Amino acid sequence: MSRRVGVRCDAGGTRGAGHLVRCVALAEELRGRGVEVCFLGDVAGSWARAQLLERRLPLLPAPDRPARLAALVRDLGLDAVVLDSYELPPGTGAAVRASAAVLAIVDGDPLGQDADLYLDQNLGAELRPVPQPVRRLAGSHYVLLRDSVRRLRRRGGTRRDAPRVLCFFGGTDSAGVAPAWARALADTGLPFQATVVSPTPFAAHGPFTVIPPTDRLPALMAEADLVVTAAGSAVWELLYLGVPAALTWVAANQLIGYEALVGRGIAAGAGPAPDAAATKVLAGLLADPEAREEYGRRGRGLVDGRGRERVADALLALLG
What we know:
The chain is of the alpha/beta class. The protein has two domains: 4-145 and 305-318, 3-Layer(aba) Sandwich (Rossmann fold); 150-299, Rossmann fold, CATH 3.40.50.2000. 35% of the residues lie in helices and 17% in strands. The strands form two sheets. The protein has a seven-stranded parallel beta sheet with strand order 3-2-1-4-5-6-7. α1 links the parallel β1 (4-9) and β2. The mean pLDDT is 93.
């Protein structure tokens, strides 16, 4: 009899798409093992919805109240539920656990959710103390990567007079910061060719190509000499590919990853805003290929691409 797993997450609008992307990666792994997977939540925006439609992953609206979500879980006959949202009431995990196993994906703070298993894929998460006897998968050993990333190998990194730069801030740039960071790149006064991902078209004077959110993002990463981005879930894809990155943050939860990666010299820190200090950092990276590539070398190997297999093993082990 096939196991059935529900994924409770939201995406689009001001939420961004990071929760959805990592849950899609886990869903791909589970589906490959014959598990039925459905998504429960609010997924807004054509790009985000397409991630589910293209993979034939069903999406159902999810009730806000924990008791009603638990009732839906029972009605659907789900064996396990993955919770990945900052917006769920604290009692959601406890209510769902009455009838299904719960995996909670967190970024540091579990936000009051009860679960049978916790996943925190942030770099250094394994070093942070947690109350016992919590069962936890922690650190970059458990990073969830999509098929579209795992099958790629990097093609950037060659010496060019004008480095290829990719500039994006989550799958949908929910904070609307792409135009400002494009200006910071232009202010370096150095040669480059940049692709900027923005859901809202804008005029960018200089060597810029502005494109809407795209499924080609992993391929664009692999072709880049430098990526300017926020310290969200896409960072793990960059580490897997070994692509040098200059990081900022656009949400408070991203500061954990930013500080860990920049503090260990795995990525360049561009700071919180595209100001003069950030422009100086970008100029240094554009002008010095060796310094740029050193970041890629330090990051390569931290994410081996098999994290989702380890997470799926642990989740299915809960079900016996």
